[in-house]
Write a structure and sequence with these properties.
Keywords: Amino-acid biosynthesis, Aromatic amino acid biosynthesis, Decarboxylase, Lyase, Tryptophan biosynthesis. There is one protein chain. By secondary structure, the chain is of the alpha/beta class. It has one domain: TIM Barrel, CATH 3.20.20.70. Helix 8 links the parallel strand 7 and strand 8. Bound molecules: the ligand O=C(O)c1ccccc1NCC(=O)[C@H](O)[C@H](O)COP(=O)(O)O. Ligand LARABZUK binds next to strand 10 and helix 11.
């Protein structure tokens, strides 16, 4: 069983619990009072030499265990805001990443940047919940969904105002994302079977992106040379978690600010 399959198994239990909280009904009752989402798409489009930064608020991960022992999401977000981030990615999965919905809500309140909910979405109930907790964008992982779910969830997200980062690992997944009409596609450089990381995954796929789609490189970026390679490959943005915490080199990179 792959690690992704293990996570998705647990998500099915969580979705069963979530159903009892009736997120769709709560959304319908409150939809006229909820603020519009911040512009995730607009903040990611690269218009100059420098890349856009999606800074991930990440405490722990399956591949690394606990990364940040004195974790304070607001302090972390403050540092990344100061570096010039264009958006935050906040992990909300509790079991595998020690994330929390509370972290997302707090970061959204304290900083005027769009926030991506980083979780494993396998059901529309999680999409309604994402809108209710203040996410401006969600992640949809092609490897976790079938093609019709991907299309339906993209449509639902658009209907309720959420942007979507569609994550792929290889050429067939990229084609699935493109056919489903994804506007933002992220290549995850981390192989979710053995956790190995290679920037070549993103660089090799970039020429196959459809015209006009916002291109994001995710995972494993640790040095200024990594950023240079991704920038030269014409990505719009990078999504970085661990590297921002452990690598001072990344603090000297100039990002395109929103
Ligand atoms: O990070 C992991 O170990 C991981 C394991 C299994 C599924 C997903 C995983 N990561 C999710 C992510 O997408 C990363 O947190 C994100 O791309 C940032 O990665 P990094 O910059 O390498 O911390």
């Amino acid at each position: 069983m792959t690690y992704l399959a293990k996570i998705l198994d647990e998500k099915r239990n969580e979705v069963a619990e979530l159903g009892k909280q009736r997120p769709q009904q709560r959304y319908e009752e409150r939809k006229n009072d909820i603020s519009p989402c911040r512009d995730f798409v607009g903040n990611l489009k690269r218009t100059g030499e420098n890349l856009r930064l999606i800074a991930e608020i990440k405490k722990a991960s399956p591949s690394r265990g606990v990364i940040v022992h004195d974790f304070d999401p607001v302090e972390m977000a403050r540092r990344y805001f100061g570096l010039g981030a264009s958006a935050f990615s906040v992990l909300t999965d509790r079991l595998f990443f020690q994330g929390s919905i509370d972290y997302l809500e707090t970061v959204k309140l304290q900083f005027n940047l769009p926030v991506l909910r980083k979780d494993f979405i396998i059901d529309e109930l999680q999409i309604f919940e994402s809108r209710l907790i203040g996410a401006d964008a969600i992640l949809l992982i092609v490897a976790a969904l079938d093609a019709s779910q991907l299309r339906d969830y993209l449509q639902l997200a658009a209907e309720i105002g959420l942007a979507v980062l569609v994550e792929v690992h290889d050429r067939p997944e990229l084609d699935t994302a493109a056919e489903a009409g994804a506007m933002i596609i992220g290549v995850n450089n981390r192989n979710l079977k053995d956790f190995s990381v290679s920037l070549d995954t993103a660089i090799d796929l970039r020429p196959h992106f459809p015209e006009g789609v916002i291109a994001v490189a995710e995972s494993g970026l640790k040095s200024s040379d990594d950023i240079l390679r991704i920038g030269q490959a014409s990505f719009d943005a990078v999504l970085i978690g661990e590297g921002l915490h452990v690598s001072p080199e990344l603090h000297a990179v100039t990002w395109q600010r929103p």
